[in-house]
Amino acid sequence: MLRGKTILLLRPTIRVGAQSTGGMFEANGTWTEEARRNIAVALANVQERLDNRVVAAPEAYGDANRLAEEYGSLFAAVSASVVNYQFFKGNRLPTKKRDNKADVFDWSVGPGVADLPGARDADFALFIYDYDAYGSTGRKLLQVVAMLGPRIAISSGVHTGYAGLVDLKTGDLLWLNADTHMGGDVRTPDGAEKRVRELLQGFPGSKPDPDTAPAR
Amino acid sequence: MSPLWLSSGLWVAAAMLAPITAGAETLPPTYAELYKPHGVDEIGIWQDADEDERRLTASPRVIRDEALTGYVKGVLCETVGPERCKAARVYIVRTPIFNASMAPNGTVRVFSGLLLRMRSEAELATVLGHEFGHFQSRHSVKLFKAERGASDVLSWAGLLAAMYPGRDTRRMFGDLRYSVLGHYFRYGRDTEREADRISIGYLNAGRLRPQVASEVWQHAIAEGLASAAAKGLRKPRYDTIAFADSHPPNAERAATLAALAALEGIGRDDGAARYASAMAPFLPQWLDDQIRLNDFGASAYVIEHLAEGGWTAPLWLARGDLYRLRGNPRDLVAATDFYAKAVALDPQLADAQRGLGLSLIKTGRRVEGQAALGRYLALRPDAPDAATIAMLAKEP
Amino acid sequence: MMRRLPTRRLFAALAVAAIAISPGHAGNALRGRGEAVPIAGSNLTITPGRDWNSLGVSPGKMVEVWTLDGEDLNAVTFYAGIEAEMPLVREISKKRLPLPKFRRQTLLADIPELLEGTYRARRMIATFHVTGATPESFLGHDGIRFTFDYVEEDELPRRGEARATIIDGRLYMATFAGPRLYYYDRSLPDFHALVEAARLR
Fold first, then answer.
1. Domain with C59 in it: what CATH number?
2. How many domains, in total, are found in chain C?
3. Does a structural domain hold residue A212?
4. Which positions in chain A touch C155 (Cβ < 8 Å)?
5. What is the pTM of this model?
6. Which run of H or of E encompasses B175?
7. Mutate which of C69, C159, C184 to test chain A, going by most A C-beta atoms within 10 A?
8. What is the mean pLDDT of residues B313-339?
9. Above 50 in pLDDT, residue C20?
10. Which segments constitute the Peptidase M48 domain (chain B) (predicted)?
């Protein structure tokens, strides 16, 4: 059970914007800043209910910053492997398929994470990636007309996120969730709370959920 | 729905393309002190650029050499003036391609492959002035809007074509697609022309010889021809525009820049000597990075172009490596000759002794080759491959 | 100046994951402990001491990639008898983007540069260093063992080790690569065990 712990929140990668009629991403600075703020508050709230304390990783410079970035890249590579080779049906590695059957989730970024800035005063590290492209009015109109007319399904909006929890003593990945169709509007505090609850589905210590990673 | 829709769709198309050329000229210049981006699109693009720069500061590909970075920044400041220059932060990135960029937030990326190809401060100033031109004219935001406008129009038109799938509609969609995309790419080329004009303006007003600007593109043409010739490809055209080209043809750029260079500047210094001494410590590494891309013609051109100022030991070494790594029997004979010239100029150049030894052995001159490998090991006893080479040097 | 290069790593990882799962390519296969298997249908045979996965996609006809956790984290690449005048892996375009070739004159001492040139030309990377090379037998023949560092597009610095030998004019090589953070060190002994378990039939 994960309760009463300190969680180090590594600077989340957050991009929020609109999706133009033609499907291009339009970064929106105000939305991104709001989302960054809302998600931080929502995270603290959700974790408080689990008796966990969330602290933001300190801003790092020079070598410490490079180490943090390298771990960020490693975490991205590990997450891609988990999604690609253990979660995703079509392409699983045979050894990972067997892990799924035995309920084994064996991934790590190594004990070196203990050297990350801020790691000494925390038990776990939380990585968060969030990418939101809200369909613009033009895109929504296109979607409706396409459906009414030639019955072409055009997607409006992209809402992708993934989050992972790493044990700062061992580097073991305790939990990972990746979702390409997330709910909750991160531009509002309530929406961000909904988003964070979805993103943290199956988080260790939270209520068991049949839909939980890694058993998907 | 009536076919009227279709024509109103096209009308929408025209309306959406209109703002592309309008621009927002009433805004303060991007290099104003503590400039804040304006409008949703510019703010968004800046924030993206800030995030990119945050990662760039930690990137393992950035060459963190204060003297080199300071020198390149100095050339930029000399070109655009100290006030404007405050808006720029320069990063040298180890990537063996001919490119540089300036992001809307002032992040300047200069690739090592570009520094390898420039011959003088004036050439570097031409490229940096061009990038600064994109920056001060807000081309990123404008291109973004143009691309969005074009893709919006095509989405609607594509849908309408699907709704009225007659042959005429299809053809109209095809025509429209070409006209919209063509407009977008042409607009991109026009921003390049504008940046070229800004750049030559800076050079004319500065202390370096502006006639050099045209040479940057002449050399790019010559390198492209050399690369294609060595690969046995058809000669590339540098005087025509392919439909989707993002840039005007190099020949046109060279001609325009030559015409716009101020005549009174012709007697000015081009800063070639200062440039060469600033780059000297990095040249062997960057030459090696270039050679190993396996683009024989381009690499040979770059080496020979550098050697116009006189052949040095590192240049003979690079030429030897280029031929040895291609590895045809005649290449190995040529490489032997080039390494010998490097060694004659600088007997202490360990890598040249190594290349000489390997090439001699492969061309059947084992005894001489083993002697050269022995000299390599004596010069660099702790070389990473010392044990392997030692075995080769001793083999009967 | 010429091309605007996308520098967005953020979701590249997930995007790659999505692309790799396009249906239709041969699946990944188990290489079970204790079972002798030929590499890419050649006379090179491995009897692994633990379970590995062989990826369904391969970069060349005579090449097979094995992994424990995915090729970005630990990849063992077997080159099973590359013939003279051939590149190590398939060329994207023979004419426009040629790769360096294994030559008749290629010496054991040249092989690190052959691998380096292949990585650099194929992936357009600048940062690749051979950090060591020593004579060491492979498949019971005189061979070479070398180590290297490199950085690719994903900016995750990696480390590698390789063994190679030339038998009857053909190149046999096994390379191992993984992120220098944790993964390289963790699985290096597993690579060494595979090298010991490699035989020519």
1. 3.40.1000.10
2. 1
3. no
4. 69, 73
5. 0.85
6. helix B167-205
7. C69
8. 96
9. no
10. 90-259
